[in-house]
Amino acid sequence: VLQISKDDVTALQCKVVCLIQNGNFKEALGVISTHTKVLTSDIIAFEKAYCEYRLNRIENALKTIQSASQQTDKLKELYGQVLYRLERYDDCLAAYRDLIRNSQDEYEEERKTNLSAVVAAQSTWEKVMPEDLGLREATYELCYNSACALIGQGKLNEAMKKLQKAEELCRQSLSEDSDVTEEDIEAELAIIHGQMAYIMQLQGRTEDALQLYNQIIKLKPTDVGLLAVIANNIITINKDQNVFDSKKKVKLTNAEGVEHKLSKKQLQAIEFNKALLAMYTNQADQCRKLSASLQSQSPEHLLPVLIQAAQLCREKQHAKAVGLLQDFADQHPANAAEIKLTMAQLKIAQGSVTKACMILRSIEELQHKPGMVSALVTMYSHEEDIDSAIEVFTQAIQWYQQFQARTNYGCCVFQPKSPVHLSLIREAANFKLKHGRKKEAISDLEELWKQNPKDVHTLAQLISAYSLVDSEKAKVLSKHLPSSDAMSLKVDVDALENSHGATYVRKKAGKLTGDNQQKEQGQGDVKKKKKKKKGKLPKNYDPKVTPDPERWLPMRERSYYRGRKKGKKKDQVGKGTQGSTTAGSSELDASRTASSPPTSPRPGSAAAVSATSNVIPPRHQKPAGAPATKKKQQQKKKKGAKGGW
């Protein structure tokens, strides 16, 4: 037809639709652009916008839809999808509500699913409290989107239950189709399992989450967005450990088309983790390049500058890191508090505690916070700067007084102080008492007692402080203390001793009658003596022989120990030429040995000559040649040798 009539509108429309059905979106756009005179926006607006949408030219698709003279239902459907991709969730929500209200066809369930997806995105990325749409969660898609909305609110346990329900519905709906295999079902369930693993990770169950993440990766799903998110989450679990695995997983985040599947915040989180991974793997240049790119994309974001500062600290350039953070704090006062906290941490790491305190005190919005006051007082106490610590207390107390004066402006009645204010005054008083500032502590305690005259603890502290300064005043105040009867605690001692947590439980006395009672009374003061067990003696023990007093010492520490005789046989070996005689050759002659007189016995061998009836056991005998009075022990030992035998 087009060969006969090149500008036939119906034929051109048919050709464009065929190309779209075949997925040839570029060719379809080419046909539309070459026949703009015939294919006007009124005729072909939907097809053109759809091709641009599929080619990820989202801004162009929006312009095409808005330029159309007539907004058909098809264009409204596509308009909702385009707004969702542009993350304009409020406009997208309004578009889908209008579609559901003004259309009745077989696609109503899909529109409700898209509407719930918009609400889930608002809850997750914009932290908006989702409204109840009244949708019946009859499909697994609706259950899944509802679970995502709950995750955005932090209701993790409820979200897990919704995901389990979505898994059941998915299995039921897919198992009804005979053509669907178990592998197809697992592939469809991959996104649900991925969200379950994410909840486990948020709950601290990292091992379970990691196992489920790896199971999904083994399935090799075709959704590159799902794979990128799972790989990123595994990298966050690994942190600075298992870096080799993280370097493999990061390749999944670089797959083609990932940028069109994920939201801007997801892509930003992946880039942050890439920069951190580069820092952990000592790729300093790559880390600086990635963090600089992130900072140019989001100049007000904290993480890029924090990553750069961390990299400088790894390179031992702490001063440069502090300067970088100071510049960022000056340029972005809204984020100065968090940056200054990091600067203070770096100063503490360098040992400059006083400078860290100065930085912390420059954060005006945190000066009066109890946590900040506690930190500053602790740090000043560590530096023994008590005056500065008391000044921190004073400034915080004054701030709360001014705050209360502003909130109670125009009120003439007595107003009690806030619990935080009173707590600060009490801590200041305790601190001053501890460091000998009694007069200053007394004024704080009087202020506390004025607020609550029935507080016995404060009164006792005040009397204790006055006793060191003004004893007469302490006596006057002591009259306000309640009597001992009023202060006595009504405690059931028996119930307390028999309680579950008692460390001492008194035994209940049994009934004593007759002889038993008299016996108990007569022998009440007598203590039972424990029988001592007789020690075991060796089998060859001889009571007539005096035991060796050094038998309990190791052999090396005994006074008669002479060390081992080394080289007995070496002296008997001839060391000259073959056939020569040595000084010890006469000893080897058997004839001479038989007639030679017996040599004197060696120390320790005298017992062998005596009769067998007088044999002294080895444990009790003492060498004959050892002097009895010699007690010098050998102290020199080989290095690393253990003492004793």
UniProtKB/TrEMBL annotation:
What UniProt keywords apply to this chain's record, in alphabetical order?
Coiled coil, Cytoplasm, Endoplasmic reticulum, Repeat, Ribonucleoprotein, Signal recognition particle, TPR repeat
Q: Name one GO molecular function term.
A: 7S RNA binding
Q: Where is the composition biased (Basic residues)?
A: 527-537, 629-645
Q: Where is the composition biased (Low complexity)?
A: 591-608
* The TPR repeat ranges on this chain: 190-223
- Bias (Basic and acidic residues) ranges: 539-560
| Domain of life where this protein originates | Eukaryota
UniProt xrefs under InterPro entries: Signal_recog_part_SRP72_RNA-bd, SRP72, SRP72_TPR-like, TPR-like_helical_dom_sf, TPR_rpt
Query: Record's family?
Result: Belongs to the SRP72 family.
- Protein name as annotated: Signal recognition particle subunit SRP72
Species of the source: Fregetta grallaria (White-bellied storm-petrel)
